[in-house]
Write a structure and sequence with these properties.
The N terminus is likely disordered. It is built from eleven helices and 14 strands. By secondary structure, the protein is of the alpha/beta class.
């Protein structure tokens, strides 16, 4: 009996032990499950950085061609280039003066940290707003005022004007060229003079007549000025205004003209000799990169044919082959530095030597031009 009883107790004890061990193993298994789940839980994604807001202020309408169109084409190019890293906006048809300051301040209030003002007359407004907002970077096209957070940039448009002059000098029959000017500032006077010098290089008999409209964009005024020049026997026209009006007026009169700032060949194909185009995208890309990389610094940037900012394109088939070849040679010289537009001797139209023989004009000289070269008729108006 004792032996049987002993065996029964031993079996019962073993059963209890087995049950306890099984419970312990199940319990341990349950404790491991959260560890496995914790390893598989996804990590929270880091928040995306806010895009750099970039604002543009335009003097004219975006339109189909011209100065503002060229700038807005570049704005779209950097949007595509940088994608989600930037967000751009623009305000068009902003008069130079008090309205410009209001618009620029509004762009700052909207959170723009990089602002481009694309006309010379915005200079005073940019300077005032830049002083009040050191946290914002300001860029002024064709200006000259700088500050710790304000810099300027421009193209060497006069290079294209010179090339256009070479074509005009060969294509004119009356030996009278016409130029529709916006404002009598160095930028525009450089272009008038370069146009004349280019024409004189192939035709010493030419004369240039100028009509001022005192606006950058006003198609009726531009057309009226062009007609006035044609009435004075001018048969090849160039302009420093922003619409296609001069080119279209030339075509209506059976004369020649050039596109300015962007490709205008489609607007008057019979009159169109070539278009002087501006490609701002390379500079805008540089400016955005400077801000994104924290390398932005005050500087004055002047790019031209060499850097690919400006070019003369779509030369009309009516232009003789030897002239086309000459244009290609001049472009090559501008690119490699072997040719420069303003090289002495150069005299003004009163006979005064303004640049001695063999002397090459620097940017300081070009920035102070307030005269017509020999061959341009009349006097430069005083003031803006």
């Amino acid at each position: 009996m004792k032996s049987t009883s002993k065996r029964l107790w031993m079996r019962a004890g073993f059963a209890v032990f087995a049950l306890s061990a099984s419970t312990f193993m199940i319990s341990c298994g349950k404790k491991e499950e959260p560890k496995e789940l914790a390893k598989e839980a996804p990590k929270a994604e880091a928040p995306k950085p806010e895009p750099l807001k970039v604002g543009f202020i335009y003097v004219g309408p975006v339109g189909d061609a011209g100065w503002t169109f060229a700038h807005d084409t570049a704005r779209k190019a950097i949007e595509e280039k940088f994608g989600e890293k930037i967000k751009t906006s623009f305000v068009e048809k902003v008069p130079e003066g008090a309205d410009a300051e209001r618009v620029i301040r509004d762009l700052v209030a909207q959170g723009n940290k990089l602002i481009f003002a694309t006309s010379f007359g915005y200079g005073d407004a940019m300077e005032k707003v830049a002083k009040d907002h050191p946290e914002v970077k300001f860029e002024h096209a064709t200006g000259y005022k700088t500050a710790d957070n304000l810099r300027v940039y421009e193209g060497r448009f006069y290079e294209d004007a010179y090339l256009a002059g070479v074509i005009a000098g060969k294509m004119t029959k009356s030996n009278i060229l016409g130029f529709v000017g916006s404002f009598p500032i160095p930028e525009v006077l450089r272009n008038i003079n370069a146009y004349t010098l280019g024409a004189q290089s192939v035709n010493p008999k030419i004369r240039t007549k100028v009509v001022w409209v005192n606006t950058w964009f006003d198609p009726p005024k531009e057309s009226e000025a062009a007609q006035s020049l044609i009435n004075q026997k001018a048969d090849v026209l160039l302009q420093n205004t922003d619409s296609t009006a001069v080119l279209q007026t030339a075509e209506k009169n059976g004369k020649f003209a050039f596109g300015w700032d962007s490709d205008m060949s489609a607007f008057a194909p019979k009159a169109h000799l070539a278009s002087a185009v501006l490609t701002w995208a390379p500079y805008y890309e540089k400016a955005v990169n400077d801000v994104l990389n924290n390398s932005w610094k005050t500087e004055v940037t002047k790019w031209g044919t060499k850097e690919g900012m400006n070019d003369l394109i779509k030369v009309n088939d009516a232009v003789p082959e030897d002239v086309r070849k000459k244009i290609d040679e001049l472009k090559a010289g501008l690119k490699d530095g072997s040719f420069t537009v303003f090289k002495g001797p150069i005299s003004d139209n009163a006979g005064k030597v303004v640049l001695p023989k063999d002397e090459v004009a620097d940017d300081a000289w070009k920035g102070k031009i307030n005269f017509y070269v020999k061959g341009v008729e009349g006097k430069v108006p005083s003031g803006k």
